[in-house]
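Dock 4-nitrophenyl phosphate; give full complex structure.
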Amino acid sequence: MIKVCFVCLGNICRSPMAEFIFKDMVKKENLEDKISVCSMATSTEEVGNSMHPGAKSELDKNHIPYTYHQVRVLSQDDYAKYDYFIGMDASNVFHIKRIFGEDKDNKVFKLLNFSESDKDISDPWYTGDFTTTYQDIVVGCKAFLDFLKDENNIN
Ligand code: 4NP
């Protein structure tokens, strides 16, 4: 099983959106027995909370199913438990590496680095624009799934 963890600052907007968008892609390609997906926060800011209503309505608008989500915070012992930690922006990547101390197995990436762009996924907590965030996450997730399939010889 390939274990993927999407990571953002609060785990209420971008990383849960990426989790459910990616789960939908994985399901549509019949890869659920090969790839598991979750999401976590680098900060404790939103502990106890669920997905942001704006994230839920963007997923609804695009017919992406989601289940009950509860904020989880990344910790050092998660490093051994997952194969890929995918940050939404450069700051997330910085904080993921800060939490782990090092990335000796090269597991930490930024989502859009799998696409042709080097952009960050903008944070709708600040921009209020869940649609642009959704579209950029879809681009990144498609590219990441192609990468995973290549890397792991999955057809
Ligand atoms: P996210 O957005 O990292 O995409 O979940 C944020 C959510 C909460 C906060 C910042 C960003 N906050 O400061 O509480």
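Observed: DSSP finds five helices and four strands in the chain.
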